[in-house]
Specification:
CATH topology of the largest domain: Rossmann fold
Structural class: alpha/beta
Strand content: 15-25%
Low-confidence stretches: 1-5
Number of strands: 19
Strand order of the largest sheet: 12-11-8-13-16-17-18-19
Shape: elongated
Oligomer: single chain
Helix content: 25-40%
CATH architecture of the largest domain: 3-Layer(aba) Sandwich
Radius of gyration: 23 Å
Number of helices: 13
CATH superfamily of the largest domain: CoaB-like
Length: 403
Protein backbone atom coordinates (compact mmCIF):
# COMPACT_ATOMS: atom_id res chain seq x y z
CA UNK A 1 0.00 0.00 0.00
CA UNK A 2 1.28 3.47 -0.84
CA UNK A 3 2.35 5.56 2.13
CA UNK A 4 0.35 8.79 2.37
CA UNK A 5 2.58 11.02 4.49
CA UNK A 6 0.62 14.04 5.79
CA UNK A 7 -2.49 13.29 3.74
CA UNK A 8 -5.36 14.81 5.70
CA UNK A 9 -8.43 12.58 5.81
CA UNK A 10 -11.68 13.56 7.50
CA UNK A 11 -13.72 10.51 8.51
CA UNK A 12 -17.43 10.91 9.21
CA UNK A 13 -19.06 8.05 11.12
CA UNK A 14 -22.84 7.53 10.88
CA UNK A 15 -25.07 5.45 13.13
CA UNK A 16 -24.98 1.79 12.16
CA UNK A 17 -23.52 -1.47 13.41
CA UNK A 18 -20.73 -1.16 10.82
CA UNK A 19 -19.37 1.79 12.81
CA UNK A 20 -17.08 -0.66 14.60
CA UNK A 21 -15.21 -1.15 11.29
CA UNK A 22 -14.44 2.57 11.17
CA UNK A 23 -12.16 2.23 14.19
CA UNK A 24 -10.00 -0.20 12.20
CA UNK A 25 -10.10 2.20 9.24
CA UNK A 26 -8.62 4.97 11.39
CA UNK A 27 -5.86 2.62 12.56
CA UNK A 28 -4.97 1.61 8.98
CA UNK A 29 -4.95 5.20 7.74
CA UNK A 30 -2.73 6.33 10.59
CA UNK A 31 -0.40 3.37 9.98
CA UNK A 32 -0.10 4.48 6.34
CA UNK A 33 1.01 7.94 7.38
CA UNK A 34 -2.23 9.86 6.98
CA UNK A 35 -3.52 12.39 9.49
CA UNK A 36 -7.08 11.54 10.45
CA UNK A 37 -9.76 13.56 12.16
CA UNK A 38 -13.17 12.15 13.00
CA UNK A 39 -16.68 13.52 13.20
CA UNK A 40 -19.60 11.47 14.52
CA UNK A 41 -23.33 11.81 14.19
CA UNK A 42 -25.46 11.57 17.29
CA UNK A 43 -26.61 8.08 16.29
CA UNK A 44 -23.01 6.90 15.70
CA UNK A 45 -22.19 7.63 19.33
CA UNK A 46 -24.73 4.98 20.34
CA UNK A 47 -22.55 2.31 18.66
CA UNK A 48 -18.96 3.47 19.34
CA UNK A 49 -17.82 6.11 21.82
CA UNK A 50 -15.99 9.26 20.69
CA UNK A 51 -13.21 8.31 23.10
CA UNK A 52 -12.37 5.29 20.91
CA UNK A 53 -11.80 7.47 17.86
CA UNK A 54 -9.98 10.11 19.87
CA UNK A 55 -7.50 7.50 21.09
CA UNK A 56 -6.98 6.07 17.60
CA UNK A 57 -6.74 9.38 15.72
CA UNK A 58 -4.90 11.42 18.32
CA UNK A 59 -7.41 14.26 17.93
CA UNK A 60 -10.60 15.33 19.64
CA UNK A 61 -13.72 14.01 17.95
CA UNK A 62 -16.20 16.53 16.55
CA UNK A 63 -19.87 15.86 17.27
CA UNK A 64 -21.67 19.23 17.28
CA UNK A 65 -22.56 21.63 14.49
CA UNK A 66 -22.09 24.73 16.66
CA UNK A 67 -18.87 24.04 18.54
CA UNK A 68 -18.16 26.92 20.92
CA UNK A 69 -14.52 25.87 21.18
CA UNK A 70 -14.08 26.84 17.53
CA UNK A 71 -13.47 30.48 16.72
CA UNK A 72 -16.75 32.07 15.55
CA UNK A 73 -18.41 28.64 16.06
CA UNK A 74 -17.67 27.71 12.44
CA UNK A 75 -16.15 24.30 13.05
CA UNK A 76 -17.69 22.76 9.94
CA UNK A 77 -16.02 25.35 7.71
CA UNK A 78 -12.61 24.85 9.32
CA UNK A 79 -12.87 21.07 9.01
CA UNK A 80 -13.98 21.30 5.39
CA UNK A 81 -11.00 23.49 4.51
CA UNK A 82 -8.57 21.29 6.46
CA UNK A 83 -9.39 17.99 4.71
CA UNK A 84 -7.76 16.61 1.57
CA UNK A 85 -10.73 14.26 1.32
CA UNK A 86 -13.91 13.40 3.20
CA UNK A 87 -14.91 9.76 3.71
CA UNK A 88 -18.28 8.84 5.22
CA UNK A 89 -18.10 5.31 6.62
CA UNK A 90 -20.54 3.89 7.35
CA UNK A 91 -22.93 5.98 5.27
CA UNK A 92 -26.51 5.17 6.22
CA UNK A 93 -29.56 5.38 3.95
CA UNK A 94 -30.73 8.37 5.99
CA UNK A 95 -27.48 10.25 5.44
CA UNK A 96 -27.41 9.46 1.72
CA UNK A 97 -30.91 10.93 1.45
CA UNK A 98 -29.87 14.07 3.34
CA UNK A 99 -26.80 14.64 1.20
CA UNK A 100 -28.62 13.97 -2.07
CA UNK A 101 -31.22 16.62 -1.25
CA UNK A 102 -28.89 19.22 0.22
CA UNK A 103 -30.26 19.13 3.76
CA UNK A 104 -27.99 20.68 6.39
CA UNK A 105 -29.33 20.09 9.88
CA UNK A 106 -26.29 18.56 11.61
CA UNK A 107 -22.50 18.73 11.50
CA UNK A 108 -21.98 16.12 8.80
CA UNK A 109 -24.64 17.26 6.33
CA UNK A 110 -23.53 20.89 6.76
CA UNK A 111 -19.87 19.97 6.35
CA UNK A 112 -20.67 18.05 3.16
CA UNK A 113 -22.12 21.20 1.60
CA UNK A 114 -19.05 23.18 2.66
CA UNK A 115 -16.53 20.58 1.43
CA UNK A 116 -14.51 21.37 -1.68
CA UNK A 117 -12.30 18.28 -1.45
CA UNK A 118 -13.18 14.85 -2.95
CA UNK A 119 -15.99 13.07 -1.11
CA UNK A 120 -16.18 9.29 -0.69
CA UNK A 121 -18.99 7.27 0.87
CA UNK A 122 -18.97 3.67 2.05
CA UNK A 123 -22.65 2.68 2.36
CA UNK A 124 -23.88 0.23 4.99
CA UNK A 125 -27.50 -0.83 5.33
CA UNK A 126 -29.92 -3.74 5.01
CA UNK A 127 -29.99 -5.23 1.50
CA UNK A 128 -33.66 -4.31 1.01
CA UNK A 129 -32.94 -0.69 1.96
CA UNK A 130 -30.03 -0.57 -0.50
CA UNK A 131 -32.15 -1.89 -3.37
CA UNK A 132 -35.08 0.43 -2.63
CA UNK A 133 -35.77 2.64 -5.66
CA UNK A 134 -35.54 5.86 -3.67
CA UNK A 135 -32.13 4.85 -2.26
CA UNK A 136 -30.80 4.10 -5.74
CA UNK A 137 -32.14 7.45 -6.94
CA UNK A 138 -30.22 9.13 -4.12
CA UNK A 139 -27.07 7.17 -5.03
CA UNK A 140 -27.39 8.19 -8.69
CA UNK A 141 -27.88 11.83 -7.71
CA UNK A 142 -24.81 11.83 -5.47
CA UNK A 143 -22.70 10.26 -8.22
CA UNK A 144 -23.87 13.01 -10.56
CA UNK A 145 -22.65 15.48 -7.92
CA UNK A 146 -19.19 13.87 -8.03
CA UNK A 147 -19.38 11.68 -4.93
CA UNK A 148 -17.36 8.44 -5.20
CA UNK A 149 -18.82 5.23 -3.79
CA UNK A 150 -16.75 2.49 -2.15
CA UNK A 151 -18.98 -0.59 -2.05
CA UNK A 152 -21.28 -1.75 -0.66
CA UNK A 153 -20.40 -5.43 -0.81
CA UNK A 154 -22.54 -8.53 -0.89
CA UNK A 155 -22.57 -10.96 2.00
CA UNK A 156 -24.10 -11.86 5.33
CA UNK A 157 -25.48 -8.88 7.23
CA UNK A 158 -25.91 -8.22 10.96
CA UNK A 159 -29.66 -8.82 10.59
CA UNK A 160 -28.97 -12.31 9.22
CA UNK A 161 -29.99 -11.55 5.64
CA UNK A 162 -27.76 -11.92 2.58
CA UNK A 163 -27.17 -9.40 -0.19
CA UNK A 164 -25.60 -6.07 -1.08
CA UNK A 165 -25.40 -3.58 1.75
CA UNK A 166 -22.37 -4.64 3.78
CA UNK A 167 -19.85 -1.88 4.28
CA UNK A 168 -16.59 -2.55 2.44
CA UNK A 169 -13.76 -3.83 4.59
CA UNK A 170 -11.48 -1.17 6.12
CA UNK A 171 -8.45 -2.37 4.14
CA UNK A 172 -10.29 -1.89 0.84
CA UNK A 173 -11.51 1.58 1.86
CA UNK A 174 -8.04 2.54 3.03
CA UNK A 175 -6.47 1.46 -0.22
CA UNK A 176 -8.99 3.42 -2.26
CA UNK A 177 -8.44 6.59 -0.23
CA UNK A 178 -4.65 6.37 -0.38
CA UNK A 179 -4.67 5.69 -4.11
CA UNK A 180 -7.51 7.99 -5.12
CA UNK A 181 -5.64 9.33 -8.16
CA UNK A 182 -7.72 6.82 -10.13
CA UNK A 183 -10.99 7.95 -8.56
CA UNK A 184 -13.26 9.04 -11.37
CA UNK A 185 -10.59 8.02 -13.88
CA UNK A 186 -13.20 6.08 -15.87
CA UNK A 187 -15.78 8.86 -15.85
CA UNK A 188 -17.74 8.63 -19.09
CA UNK A 189 -15.96 5.42 -20.16
CA UNK A 190 -18.19 2.54 -21.29
CA UNK A 191 -17.13 -0.75 -19.69
CA UNK A 192 -18.62 -4.09 -20.79
CA UNK A 193 -18.06 -7.10 -18.51
CA UNK A 194 -19.08 -10.70 -19.07
CA UNK A 195 -19.33 -12.80 -15.92
CA UNK A 196 -20.32 -16.17 -14.54
CA UNK A 197 -20.62 -19.55 -16.24
CA UNK A 198 -22.66 -20.55 -19.25
CA UNK A 199 -25.00 -23.54 -19.40
CA UNK A 200 -25.05 -25.69 -22.54
CA UNK A 201 -28.21 -27.86 -22.61
CA UNK A 202 -28.07 -31.55 -23.44
CA UNK A 203 -31.79 -32.18 -22.99
CA UNK A 204 -34.63 -30.50 -21.04
CA UNK A 205 -33.08 -31.40 -17.64
CA UNK A 206 -29.30 -31.63 -18.14
CA UNK A 207 -26.59 -29.21 -19.18
CA UNK A 208 -22.81 -28.76 -19.36
CA UNK A 209 -21.41 -26.04 -17.11
CA UNK A 210 -18.58 -25.27 -14.68
CA UNK A 211 -17.97 -24.10 -11.11
CA UNK A 212 -17.72 -20.35 -11.82
CA UNK A 213 -19.69 -18.30 -9.27
CA UNK A 214 -19.45 -14.97 -11.13
CA UNK A 215 -18.10 -13.24 -8.00
CA UNK A 216 -15.04 -11.79 -9.73
CA UNK A 217 -16.98 -10.39 -12.67
CA UNK A 218 -19.62 -8.84 -10.40
CA UNK A 219 -16.90 -7.35 -8.18
CA UNK A 220 -15.23 -5.86 -11.26
CA UNK A 221 -18.56 -4.32 -12.26
CA UNK A 222 -18.77 -2.62 -8.86
CA UNK A 223 -15.13 -1.47 -9.07
CA UNK A 224 -15.73 0.02 -12.53
CA UNK A 225 -18.83 1.83 -11.25
CA UNK A 226 -16.81 3.18 -8.33
CA UNK A 227 -14.29 4.56 -10.85
CA UNK A 228 -17.09 6.44 -12.62
CA UNK A 229 -17.63 4.13 -15.60
CA UNK A 230 -20.88 3.30 -17.36
CA UNK A 231 -21.12 -0.47 -16.86
CA UNK A 232 -22.97 -3.15 -18.78
CA UNK A 233 -22.82 -6.61 -17.20
CA UNK A 234 -23.57 -9.66 -19.36
CA UNK A 235 -24.10 -12.47 -16.88
CA UNK A 236 -24.55 -16.18 -17.05
CA UNK A 237 -26.69 -17.92 -14.38
CA UNK A 238 -25.37 -16.99 -10.91
CA UNK A 239 -26.70 -16.58 -7.37
CA UNK A 240 -25.61 -12.95 -7.08
CA UNK A 241 -27.28 -9.56 -7.12
CA UNK A 242 -25.86 -7.21 -9.76
CA UNK A 243 -24.73 -3.70 -8.74
CA UNK A 244 -27.80 -1.50 -8.97
CA UNK A 245 -26.21 1.02 -11.33
CA UNK A 246 -25.07 -1.59 -13.86
CA UNK A 247 -27.04 -2.42 -17.00
CA UNK A 248 -27.63 -6.16 -16.49
CA UNK A 249 -28.15 -8.53 -19.43
CA UNK A 250 -28.91 -12.11 -18.38
CA UNK A 251 -27.96 -15.03 -20.64
CA UNK A 252 -27.70 -18.82 -20.34
CA UNK A 253 -25.62 -20.23 -23.18
CA UNK A 254 -22.31 -19.31 -24.78
CA UNK A 255 -24.07 -18.37 -28.02
CA UNK A 256 -26.42 -16.06 -26.12
CA UNK A 257 -23.47 -14.48 -24.31
CA UNK A 258 -21.62 -14.03 -27.60
CA UNK A 259 -24.60 -12.33 -29.20
CA UNK A 260 -25.19 -10.09 -26.15
CA UNK A 261 -21.55 -8.99 -26.02
CA UNK A 262 -21.34 -8.31 -29.76
CA UNK A 263 -24.57 -6.30 -29.64
CA UNK A 264 -22.94 -3.90 -27.14
CA UNK A 265 -19.40 -3.81 -28.49
CA UNK A 266 -19.74 -0.85 -30.87
CA UNK A 267 -20.23 1.53 -27.94
CA UNK A 268 -17.70 -0.17 -25.63
CA UNK A 269 -14.37 1.35 -24.61
CA UNK A 270 -13.19 -1.48 -22.33
CA UNK A 271 -14.27 -5.13 -22.55
CA UNK A 272 -13.45 -7.48 -19.68
CA UNK A 273 -14.11 -11.13 -20.44
CA UNK A 274 -14.35 -12.51 -16.90
CA UNK A 275 -16.94 -15.18 -17.76
CA UNK A 276 -16.09 -18.87 -17.70
CA UNK A 277 -17.60 -19.68 -21.08
CA UNK A 278 -18.09 -23.35 -21.93
CA UNK A 279 -15.72 -24.35 -24.72
CA UNK A 280 -18.20 -26.83 -26.21
CA UNK A 281 -21.94 -27.34 -26.60
CA UNK A 282 -24.00 -30.33 -27.67
CA UNK A 283 -24.15 -30.75 -31.42
CA UNK A 284 -27.78 -31.73 -30.97
CA UNK A 285 -29.99 -30.86 -28.00
CA UNK A 286 -32.47 -33.64 -27.38
CA UNK A 287 -36.13 -32.63 -27.12
CA UNK A 288 -36.79 -35.30 -24.48
CA UNK A 289 -34.79 -36.49 -21.49
CA UNK A 290 -31.95 -38.77 -22.50
CA UNK A 291 -32.54 -42.26 -21.05
CA UNK A 292 -29.92 -44.58 -19.63
CA UNK A 293 -28.45 -46.96 -22.16
CA UNK A 294 -28.55 -50.69 -21.50
CA UNK A 295 -24.82 -51.09 -22.15
CA UNK A 296 -23.95 -48.22 -19.75
CA UNK A 297 -22.30 -46.28 -22.59
CA UNK A 298 -23.61 -43.13 -24.17
CA UNK A 299 -21.95 -40.84 -26.70
CA UNK A 300 -22.74 -37.12 -26.86
CA UNK A 301 -21.28 -35.25 -29.81
CA UNK A 302 -19.97 -31.77 -29.03
CA UNK A 303 -19.11 -28.78 -31.15
CA UNK A 304 -16.98 -25.76 -30.35
CA UNK A 305 -18.46 -22.55 -29.01
CA UNK A 306 -17.23 -19.20 -30.33
CA UNK A 307 -14.31 -17.65 -28.44
CA UNK A 308 -15.95 -14.42 -27.29
CA UNK A 309 -12.89 -12.54 -26.04
CA UNK A 310 -10.92 -13.43 -29.18
CA UNK A 311 -13.83 -12.31 -31.37
CA UNK A 312 -13.81 -8.93 -29.63
CA UNK A 313 -10.02 -8.55 -29.64
CA UNK A 314 -9.78 -9.16 -33.37
CA UNK A 315 -12.32 -6.55 -34.42
CA UNK A 316 -11.01 -3.78 -36.64
CA UNK A 317 -11.92 -1.13 -34.05
CA UNK A 318 -11.59 -3.26 -30.96
CA UNK A 319 -12.05 -1.86 -27.45
CA UNK A 320 -9.32 -2.26 -24.83
CA UNK A 321 -9.70 -6.00 -24.26
CA UNK A 322 -8.99 -7.90 -21.05
CA UNK A 323 -9.08 -11.68 -20.87
CA UNK A 324 -8.95 -14.19 -18.02
CA UNK A 325 -7.12 -17.49 -17.76
CA UNK A 326 -7.97 -20.07 -15.07
CA UNK A 327 -5.30 -22.76 -15.03
CA UNK A 328 -4.32 -25.76 -12.92
CA UNK A 329 -0.63 -25.67 -13.99
CA UNK A 330 1.92 -23.73 -16.10
CA UNK A 331 -0.08 -20.59 -15.48
CA UNK A 332 2.39 -18.05 -16.90
CA UNK A 333 3.04 -20.02 -20.07
CA UNK A 334 -0.65 -20.53 -20.85
CA UNK A 335 -1.56 -16.94 -19.96
CA UNK A 336 1.13 -15.40 -22.16
CA UNK A 337 0.14 -17.74 -24.98
CA UNK A 338 -3.47 -16.55 -24.78
CA UNK A 339 -2.38 -12.91 -24.52
CA UNK A 340 -0.55 -13.18 -27.85
CA UNK A 341 -2.76 -15.61 -29.77
CA UNK A 342 -5.99 -13.79 -28.92
CA UNK A 343 -4.58 -10.28 -29.45
CA UNK A 344 -5.47 -9.16 -25.92
CA UNK A 345 -4.31 -5.95 -24.29
CA UNK A 346 -4.11 -7.54 -20.85
CA UNK A 347 -4.82 -10.91 -19.26
CA UNK A 348 -5.51 -11.81 -15.63
CA UNK A 349 -4.58 -15.36 -14.71
CA UNK A 350 -5.27 -17.42 -11.61
CA UNK A 351 -4.80 -20.96 -10.40
CA UNK A 352 -7.87 -23.14 -9.87
CA UNK A 353 -8.07 -26.41 -8.01
CA UNK A 354 -5.84 -25.04 -5.25
CA UNK A 355 -6.52 -25.07 -1.51
CA UNK A 356 -7.75 -21.49 -1.54
CA UNK A 357 -9.05 -19.05 -4.13
CA UNK A 358 -10.41 -19.47 -7.63
CA UNK A 359 -13.87 -20.74 -8.50
CA UNK A 360 -16.68 -20.39 -5.97
CA UNK A 361 -14.44 -18.69 -3.39
CA UNK A 362 -14.60 -15.25 -1.79
CA UNK A 363 -10.83 -14.90 -2.17
CA UNK A 364 -8.39 -15.06 -5.04
CA UNK A 365 -4.97 -13.99 -6.30
CA UNK A 366 -4.08 -12.90 -9.82
CA UNK A 367 -1.04 -12.76 -12.07
CA UNK A 368 -1.65 -10.00 -14.62
CA UNK A 369 0.28 -9.82 -17.90
CA UNK A 370 0.47 -7.32 -20.76
CA UNK A 371 2.81 -6.92 -23.74
CA UNK A 372 5.78 -5.53 -21.83
CA UNK A 373 5.04 -6.16 -18.19
CA UNK A 374 3.36 -8.12 -15.44
CA UNK A 375 2.10 -7.68 -11.88
CA UNK A 376 1.14 -10.04 -9.08
CA UNK A 377 -1.96 -9.20 -7.05
CA UNK A 378 -1.73 -11.14 -3.79
CA UNK A 379 -4.46 -13.28 -2.24
CA UNK A 380 -7.29 -11.15 -0.85
CA UNK A 381 -11.08 -10.91 -0.97
CA UNK A 382 -12.46 -10.59 -4.47
CA UNK A 383 -13.93 -7.10 -4.07
CA UNK A 384 -10.59 -5.69 -2.99
CA UNK A 385 -8.84 -7.70 -5.70
CA UNK A 386 -11.28 -6.33 -8.27
CA UNK A 387 -10.51 -2.77 -7.14
CA UNK A 388 -6.79 -3.43 -7.58
CA UNK A 389 -7.29 -5.02 -10.99
CA UNK A 390 -9.59 -2.22 -12.17
CA UNK A 391 -6.98 0.33 -11.12
CA UNK A 392 -4.40 -1.50 -13.25
CA UNK A 393 -6.80 -1.79 -16.20
CA UNK A 394 -7.53 1.94 -15.90
CA UNK A 395 -3.80 2.73 -15.92
CA UNK A 396 -3.12 0.63 -19.04
CA UNK A 397 -6.26 1.86 -20.80
CA UNK A 398 -5.20 5.49 -20.40
CA UNK A 399 -1.64 4.69 -21.50
CA UNK A 400 -3.11 3.33 -24.75
CA UNK A 401 -5.71 6.11 -25.04
CA UNK A 402 -3.95 9.23 -23.68
CA UNK A 403 -6.63 11.61 -24.91
Amino acid sequence: MDIAINKRILLAVCGGIAAYKSAELVRLLRKSGAEVRVIMTEAAQQFVTPLTFQALSGHAVHTALLDLTQEQAMGHIHLARWADCLIIAPATADMLAKLAHGLADDLLSTLYLAAESPVFVAPAMNQAMWHKTVTQENVAKLKQHGVSFIGPESGEQACGELGFGRMSEPAAICQTLLNDSTSGALQGVNVLISAGPTREPLDPVRFISNRSSGKMGYSLAQAALDAGANVTLVSGPVQLTAPAQANLIKVETALEMHDAVMSQIASTDIYIGAAAVADYRAAQVEAKKIKKQQDDNSVIHLQKNPDIVASVANLANKPFTVGFAAETDELESYALGKLRSKNLDLIAANYVGQAEGGFDSDRNALYVYWADGQRHLAMTDKQQLATQLMSLITEKYHEKNPT
